[in-house]
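A quick aside before the break. I want you to see a complete sequence-to-structure record at least once, exactly as it would be stored in a machine-readable document. Don't worry about memorizing anything.
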Amino acid sequence: MTEASHVAGIAPFTTIVCPFCCLLLQKLDCDGIILTILIVWISCLYALLGFCPGFNIILLSLADGIVVSLMSTMSWQVLVVLCPASYVGSLSGVVYSLRNFTTALVFIAAGYMLQRGNMTDKDEAVHHYQHMFIMLLILSATGIIIGVVMNVMDIRKGGALNTRIRKWQQSNVENIELISKTEPSSEYGGNSDTKDSDDF
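That is the input. The structure line, written in tokens, reads:
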């Protein structure tokens, strides 16, 4: 019990590095893609926690704390970017309520799957824990699919979430326009020389 408390208490300390990570994310300037990568990251953590018992639990707890902190930060940032300024407050309240409601449902479902009061065998307990992590993996996979669709639509419609990609697209379009407007002077120079020789 004491060891479990120590492991659970490690994750909140990772919020110390969150401001530095946010500065790095600001430099990258691809909020939508990074949010999807974070969901993939937490899916891998669920798989390791559920099906790789030999993995170092301290490292997993640290990685979990970092990814949860970053995902919370990125979620609010995406909300601010996508929503009109006059609706940010109301939509933030709705998102916060939905997130807490979903978390409560996940805890209820996990408690039903684990059924700790009726468990006496260790293998049976591990089996129930694996069922819980399968549920979390299904939810994470759904988030990955939604994230991919969101990024594809964002890149096609202007790149509000992925500003760096939008800048790359704009610079590529400008380069193509400059190339198309540039006249091949060598070709015209050859024709003018031929014309001059004909006049003589």
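Two observations worth writing down. The CA atoms of residues 66 and 119 lie 32 Å apart. The two ends are 103 Å apart (CA to CA). We'll return to this after the break.
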